[in-house]
Amino acid sequence: MANFSDNFFKKIEKKTNVNKQTILDLATKLQQNDLKNENTLREVIQELSKMTGKEVSKEKEDKIINAVVNDNVPKNIDKMF
Fold first, then answer.
1. Which ranges in 1-81 belong to alpha helices (H)?
2. With the C-alpha atoms ordered 21, 27, 33, 37, is the resulting torsion angle positive or negative?
3. What end-to-end distance do the CA atoms of the chain give, in Å?
4. Alpha-carbon distances of 12 from 8, 16, 51, rounded to whole Å
5. 73 close to 41: Cβ distance less than 8 angstroms
6. Most buried of 44, 77, 80, 81 (most Cβ within 10 A)?
7. Residues 6+ apart with CB under 8 A from 68
8. What is the pTM of this model?
9. Where are the domains of the chain?
């Protein structure tokens, strides 16, 4: 994450209301965990849901997990939320 400028994080924060440290903490968590692990994925999805203020239904959460576990993540992942 050192390659990203503060300007990049400021744009993200302005758009999402999620601060730089929260993004870095989540990135560290993602790097240190197995993203094929369903429990890890559920934690990450729930954390992102809280950070963005967007509720993710159980059905949508299951679809996201299924897509990630089966390497079927679309290029436009923002459409999943």
1. 6-16, 20-32, 38-52, 58-69
2. positive
3. 24
4. 6, 6, 12
5. no
6. 44
7. 35, 36, 41
8. 0.61
9. 6-80
Amino acid in the structure at residue 48:
L
CA 57/CA 63 separation, integer angstroms:
10
* Beta-carbon contacts of residue 60 (< 8 Å; ≥ 6 apart): 80
State residue 58's pLDDT score.
Answer: 92
Tokens for 71?
Answer: 């390497």
Query: Which token pair is 36?
Result: 């094929």
Counting Cα atoms < 13 Å in the Cβ hemisphere of 74 gives 8
Per-residue pLDDT of the chain (81 residues; tens, 9 = 90+): 456 778 888 887 887 778 888 888 888 877 777 777 888 888 888 888 888 788 899 999 998 888 888 877 666 655 555
